[in-house]
Predict the 3D structure of the following.
Amino acid sequence: MTAQPTPVTPAPSPRRASRVRRGDGRAALRYLIPAGVVLLALLVYPIYQLVVISLYDYGQPQASGAAPLVFLGLDNYAKLLSDPRFWDVLVTTIVFAGVCVAGTVLVGTALAVLAGRARRIPRTLLFLAALGAWATPTIAGSYVWLFLFDQDFGLVNEVFAGLGFGGMHGHSWTFDRYSAFGLVAGEIIWCSFPFVMVTMYAGITAIPREVVEAASLDGASARRTATSVLLPILRPILTIATIQSIIWDFKVFTQIYVMTNGGGVAGQNLVLNVYAYQKAFAGEEYGLGAAIGVVMTVLLLLITALYVRAQRGVR
Amino acid sequence: MTIRRTVVVAALGALAIACAPPQASNDSPRQTASAGGTVGATTGELRVWLFQEPTNAPKEAVVTEARAEFEKAHPGVTVNVEYLPVDTRASRFNGAFNDPASAPDVAEFGNTDLAGYTASNGFAELTADVKAWPDGKDLVPSVLDTAKVDGRTYGIPWYTGTRALYYRTDVFDELDLKPPKTLKELTETARRIRAAKPDLYGIATGGKSQYSFLPYIWANGGDVAKQDGDTWKSTIDAKQARAGLTQYAELLHDDICPPSACAQLTGSQSVAAFAGGKAGMVIGGDFNRAAIDAGAVKGKYAVVPLPGTKSGSIAPAFAGGNLLGVFRSSDRYTLSLEFVELLGGKKYQEKMFGAMGNMPTFADVQNRVAKSDEFLAPFIRTAQAGTRFVPSTPAWTKIDAAGVLPTAVQQIATGQLDVDAATSAAATQMNEDFGS
């Protein structure tokens, strides 16, 4: 309690000012300690272990002490980066995440705008539906989608066949690479648009009416109001929602693993996280898997850094 | 600034190198393979891991009986059995190897996992004890081979599983078909079934049904890999293996089993399709009988051995099955061994057959049960005609986990690659994993 920031007096002496500042710093440090300890234990230490493991030839025999540890340095990374398969999967992951993010943000924003204009009851229904999708556990959601699109017994094929598209009878949605990715992307957008929608809706309702009114008094068209007034105000929120979506969709695992049965026919639907899982745990090459994890972490940190910079630019 | 940065980088580097990743200490007492003599404590708790079956009650009944008999013969011993789900076994076993204090004394495990477990020093060597065991001499040699790595025995085969060809008797009668005598005939028969009944797969089989396509490779004289001294070398790109895969891939065509439905099928999914009445034939195991009888085709099927390339020959089957072994970290070696010999012995194998239908691993017990149950005859003929196994090296765990062979079959079936390209890629990947 001694380090409470004291009210700044109108004309503090230079010495006193620096003492206050130092006191502030200490107080801040003390407030940060609990969060810092948690972060250190749950984030920094695991990442440290991940990096260390990625420098060794570390498989199951090494973990159980049956084989000696061999320090490889950066060999795991060299092996990974020289593997065309890795680059293939990386590009796939980026494109797939891009599509999912674009879809999520578009659908979420569109529905947020819609919710802003709808009457109370339709709006409540929309929110209930969105929250239902949001609350569905990932595995359950994936299986429900799989059942809907099942080759033999799925509702979707039956509806298509009933509408006269006889060719859809027995159509497999997961056989073709892009069709399978499309199906998974649909599920991901379905379960992640509510976050964007709720965030954007909060942003839209927080815009003061006077601003919009002023714009329309100045003769701005609805389109002009949207692009020159509303969008700039919403930009920070939109950026947060987008970055969050990028991070989530880049790390997608469950949907791909469940819906394409572990990576699709001949591994055509692998994304980075599933690939790392197969290398690290199924193949018991923990060192190589850790290297993939480190690469992913670095990529995501880069995206986050871009985000922080973008935020600074806004202010 | 530059100096400071260098120091920081150097410090971080030192930190990374100085602190190696965790390793379990592996200096627990080594069990020597000397027969006779008591090793370890002879009283206390004996912890046993067995697999959880879809219908576990009959298995539990037999195991409980064995447990009671064992506890009666060994005063002061309690046997504690835990049933593990098969799907998540890897994390349990790896955890036990990493932390010997939490490991059980005895475990049931799949014979394809053995090489990997051995590389982790997971199980005690039983070579001399199995040799000295009176029941041991009746073990079918090719089945006992599945319990060996580099000539050393690490477990007692508890039961074996063999696959053969199930076919629909009603469909065959209606279309006036005979069970195929060669693999080539099988393809033609399957094609005729689908032509006459387009809602049936000629044979339900898939890109992921590894133990259905391995017999094709073996029947054509090929193999997955060849041991050469200490290393293994892939032979999946050899002429015979390619011939086998080509023949198998013919089944994954629209006129037999359309790739859009079948490319992803695993062995048990294929069996499920057959059981549901969606297929004319399937390559299934004796252990699949309950699943098939629970389906729509109960009483409408028969089984023959999967034919080879020549009329009258049998395609070598994969020798699947589970072993009973003693954990290397156990400090009750002799007690554990005695329990394994009781539960894995003739008496309880026969009881397990009665309860679960598990095929025994002793030749004399096999013949005895074959007489009592005609259904088993084709499987036992297949088993006794000689079975084959996957490479017994830990690298196989990686190859299997990465699905190298199923991927090749899927690439061929979907037309992404031709047989030569797909098998060459698979061979490269396998050789990399073998480290040769």
